[in-house]
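[Discussion] Sanity-checking designs against the backbone

I'm trying to build intuition for which residues belong where. Below is a C-alpha coordinate string of 175 positions. I'd appreciate it if someone posts a full sequence so I can compare it with mine line by line.
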Protein backbone atom coordinates (compact mmCIF):
# COMPACT_ATOMS: atom_id res chain seq x y z
CA UNK A 1 0.00 0.00 0.00
CA UNK A 2 1.42 3.37 -1.04
CA UNK A 3 2.05 5.87 1.78
CA UNK A 4 -0.36 8.84 1.47
CA UNK A 5 2.27 11.19 2.95
CA UNK A 6 5.53 10.48 1.13
CA UNK A 7 4.34 8.20 -1.68
CA UNK A 8 6.64 5.31 -0.75
CA UNK A 9 5.30 2.12 -2.34
CA UNK A 10 5.35 -0.09 0.72
CA UNK A 11 3.92 -0.06 4.24
CA UNK A 12 3.84 -2.32 7.24
CA UNK A 13 0.57 -3.54 8.82
CA UNK A 14 0.57 -2.87 12.57
CA UNK A 15 -2.96 -3.97 13.42
CA UNK A 16 -5.95 -5.52 11.62
CA UNK A 17 -9.48 -5.87 12.94
CA UNK A 18 -12.93 -6.52 11.48
CA UNK A 19 -15.38 -3.60 11.41
CA UNK A 20 -18.92 -3.00 10.16
CA UNK A 21 -20.16 -6.36 11.45
CA UNK A 22 -17.35 -8.21 9.70
CA UNK A 23 -18.00 -6.75 6.25
CA UNK A 24 -14.77 -4.74 6.26
CA UNK A 25 -11.27 -4.90 7.72
CA UNK A 26 -9.55 -1.88 9.26
CA UNK A 27 -5.77 -1.91 9.00
CA UNK A 28 -3.36 0.40 10.83
CA UNK A 29 -0.22 0.83 8.74
CA UNK A 30 3.18 2.48 9.07
CA UNK A 31 5.45 3.74 6.31
CA UNK A 32 9.04 2.46 6.72
CA UNK A 33 10.43 5.59 5.00
CA UNK A 34 8.69 8.50 6.79
CA UNK A 35 7.46 6.43 9.77
CA UNK A 36 4.00 8.05 9.65
CA UNK A 37 0.93 5.97 10.40
CA UNK A 38 -2.32 5.77 8.48
CA UNK A 39 -5.49 3.67 8.35
CA UNK A 40 -6.90 1.73 5.41
CA UNK A 41 -10.16 -0.18 5.01
CA UNK A 42 -10.64 -3.29 2.95
CA UNK A 43 -14.16 -4.12 1.74
CA UNK A 44 -15.65 -6.65 -0.60
CA UNK A 45 -16.65 -4.97 -3.81
CA UNK A 46 -20.25 -5.79 -4.55
CA UNK A 47 -21.97 -5.33 -7.87
CA UNK A 48 -24.21 -2.28 -7.91
CA UNK A 49 -27.83 -3.01 -7.17
CA UNK A 50 -30.41 -0.89 -8.94
CA UNK A 51 -33.88 -0.17 -7.59
CA UNK A 52 -36.72 0.13 -10.11
CA UNK A 53 -39.14 2.77 -8.80
CA UNK A 54 -42.93 2.82 -9.37
CA UNK A 55 -42.58 5.25 -12.25
CA UNK A 56 -39.91 3.13 -13.97
CA UNK A 57 -36.92 5.24 -12.92
CA UNK A 58 -33.84 3.38 -11.76
CA UNK A 59 -31.53 4.46 -8.98
CA UNK A 60 -28.79 2.80 -6.93
CA UNK A 61 -29.84 0.89 -3.82
CA UNK A 62 -29.42 3.12 -0.78
CA UNK A 63 -29.87 1.58 2.64
CA UNK A 64 -29.89 5.09 4.11
CA UNK A 65 -33.23 5.78 2.41
CA UNK A 66 -34.79 2.74 4.06
CA UNK A 67 -33.41 3.71 7.46
CA UNK A 68 -34.65 7.28 6.98
CA UNK A 69 -38.17 6.03 6.24
CA UNK A 70 -38.06 3.78 9.27
CA UNK A 71 -36.89 6.63 11.51
CA UNK A 72 -39.83 8.74 10.34
CA UNK A 73 -42.25 5.86 10.93
CA UNK A 74 -40.76 5.22 14.37
CA UNK A 75 -41.39 8.78 15.50
CA UNK A 76 -41.14 8.70 19.28
CA UNK A 77 -41.87 4.99 19.57
CA UNK A 78 -39.55 2.99 21.87
CA UNK A 79 -37.75 1.16 19.07
CA UNK A 80 -33.96 0.99 19.46
CA UNK A 81 -31.95 2.33 16.52
CA UNK A 82 -30.02 -0.95 16.51
CA UNK A 83 -33.24 -2.85 15.80
CA UNK A 84 -33.99 -0.62 12.82
CA UNK A 85 -30.42 -0.98 11.52
CA UNK A 86 -30.69 -4.76 11.86
CA UNK A 87 -33.98 -4.67 9.94
CA UNK A 88 -32.34 -2.68 7.12
CA UNK A 89 -29.34 -5.06 7.06
CA UNK A 90 -31.69 -8.05 6.84
CA UNK A 91 -33.66 -6.52 3.97
CA UNK A 92 -30.44 -5.68 2.12
CA UNK A 93 -29.13 -9.23 2.65
CA UNK A 94 -32.34 -10.75 1.28
CA UNK A 95 -32.38 -8.45 -1.75
CA UNK A 96 -28.70 -9.00 -2.56
CA UNK A 97 -28.97 -12.79 -2.16
CA UNK A 98 -31.56 -12.82 -4.92
CA UNK A 99 -28.59 -12.34 -7.25
CA UNK A 100 -30.41 -9.91 -9.53
CA UNK A 101 -28.96 -6.63 -10.78
CA UNK A 102 -32.31 -4.87 -10.34
CA UNK A 103 -35.03 -5.09 -7.72
CA UNK A 104 -38.44 -3.43 -7.66
CA UNK A 105 -39.01 -0.88 -4.91
CA UNK A 106 -42.30 -2.65 -4.14
CA UNK A 107 -40.39 -5.78 -3.06
CA UNK A 108 -38.17 -3.72 -0.76
CA UNK A 109 -41.23 -2.04 0.73
CA UNK A 110 -42.98 -5.35 1.36
CA UNK A 111 -39.87 -6.83 2.99
CA UNK A 112 -39.55 -3.79 5.25
CA UNK A 113 -43.24 -3.87 6.23
CA UNK A 114 -43.15 -7.61 6.93
CA UNK A 115 -40.30 -7.12 9.40
CA UNK A 116 -41.58 -3.86 10.88
CA UNK A 117 -45.00 -5.38 11.65
CA UNK A 118 -43.45 -7.78 14.15
CA UNK A 119 -41.24 -5.03 15.60
CA UNK A 120 -43.84 -2.32 16.29
CA UNK A 121 -47.43 -2.15 15.02
CA UNK A 122 -47.75 1.63 15.26
CA UNK A 123 -44.56 2.20 13.28
CA UNK A 124 -45.83 -0.41 10.81
CA UNK A 125 -49.08 1.49 10.22
CA UNK A 126 -47.17 4.77 9.85
CA UNK A 127 -44.77 3.21 7.34
CA UNK A 128 -47.60 1.48 5.48
CA UNK A 129 -49.55 4.75 5.23
CA UNK A 130 -46.65 6.35 3.37
CA UNK A 131 -45.67 3.27 1.39
CA UNK A 132 -49.16 2.32 0.29
CA UNK A 133 -50.18 5.96 -0.10
CA UNK A 134 -53.41 5.76 1.86
CA UNK A 135 -55.88 8.27 0.44
CA UNK A 136 -58.21 8.59 3.43
CA UNK A 137 -58.93 7.44 6.97
CA UNK A 138 -60.90 4.42 5.70
CA UNK A 139 -57.73 3.08 4.07
CA UNK A 140 -55.92 3.27 7.40
CA UNK A 141 -58.82 1.56 9.20
CA UNK A 142 -58.75 -1.25 6.60
CA UNK A 143 -55.00 -1.72 7.10
CA UNK A 144 -55.45 -1.87 10.89
CA UNK A 145 -58.24 -4.45 10.39
CA UNK A 146 -55.89 -6.54 8.19
CA UNK A 147 -53.19 -6.24 10.85
CA UNK A 148 -55.60 -7.41 13.58
CA UNK A 149 -56.83 -10.33 11.47
CA UNK A 150 -53.28 -11.46 10.74
CA UNK A 151 -52.37 -11.14 14.41
CA UNK A 152 -55.41 -13.28 15.35
CA UNK A 153 -54.43 -15.94 12.77
CA UNK A 154 -50.88 -16.05 14.14
CA UNK A 155 -52.14 -16.36 17.71
CA UNK A 156 -54.51 -19.18 16.73
CA UNK A 157 -51.70 -20.95 14.92
CA UNK A 158 -49.47 -20.71 18.01
CA UNK A 159 -52.17 -22.27 20.21
CA UNK A 160 -52.90 -25.22 17.92
CA UNK A 161 -51.58 -28.64 18.75
CA UNK A 162 -49.41 -30.02 15.92
CA UNK A 163 -50.82 -33.04 14.04
CA UNK A 164 -47.43 -34.69 13.85
CA UNK A 165 -44.91 -34.77 16.67
CA UNK A 166 -41.72 -32.79 16.17
CA UNK A 167 -38.90 -34.98 14.80
CA UNK A 168 -36.47 -36.29 17.41
CA UNK A 169 -33.55 -35.90 15.02
CA UNK A 170 -34.37 -33.06 12.59
CA UNK A 171 -31.23 -33.76 10.57
CA UNK A 172 -32.42 -37.05 9.06
CA UNK A 173 -35.68 -35.71 7.58
CA UNK A 174 -37.87 -38.50 9.06
CA UNK A 175 -40.57 -38.29 11.71
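Best answer:
Here's mine. Compare freely.
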Amino acid sequence: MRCPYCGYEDSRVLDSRPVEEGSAIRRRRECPRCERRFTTYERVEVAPLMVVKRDGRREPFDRGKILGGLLKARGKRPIPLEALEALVADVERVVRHRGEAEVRSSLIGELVMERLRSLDEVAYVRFASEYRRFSDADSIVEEVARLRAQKAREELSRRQIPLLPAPENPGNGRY
